[in-house]
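INFO batch 0412 | record 1 of 1 | parsing
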Amino acid sequence: MAILQVLFTQLMNTLNFLKENSITHCDIKPENLMVEISENENNPLLKIVDFGSADCNKDKHCSYSVTIDLEFTAPELLHFPPQVSNAADIWSAGAVLYILLSGVSPFLDESVEETTAHVLNQDFSFPEEYFSHITESAKELICSILTLDIPTRLTPLESLHSSWIKQDMSNVTIQTAIFKHFIQRHGLTQHIFLSLNN
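INFO prediction complete | emitting tokens
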């Protein structure tokens, strides 16, 4: 299993744990995904940090008032009142996976209004210049996560059964140079991208 599959599997397992404990992180993005790399670089450990926006939604009465990073925000969080659920975290994870595969954001545009419109309309595509090397199974997984219809959006457990997760990608190398612009734009120093260098 390629390192990206390992990290995404760990992310889905963690989101499933949060779901089982009625916790929504509400701010899944590369800046909040740290990877601990031991001497054995083949066994990275992904950790989700910054639970400052997290919502414990056991009573189903949620409040959500934080500064959000639009390109990773689920559309249901942009409505009033926002619909906070674990499905929002899986959407954000789908946006992160898109970036990890291509180096570009699925929804980001030149203005807040344009970015918001892209998110609310599920307006994204797979440009050939960024996705020519990406398998159809990876694209199918992203599409199954980045869907406006919450009941049909994949859960973390369902994502773990996707054909992309099971696909042998041990010989696939991610060209980390594709992340340069994204890293510079976000001013990142420590982040998940560092773990993809091997």
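INFO post-check: The domain at 3-197 is CATH 1.10.510.10 (Transferase(Phosphotransferase); domain 1).
INFO record closed
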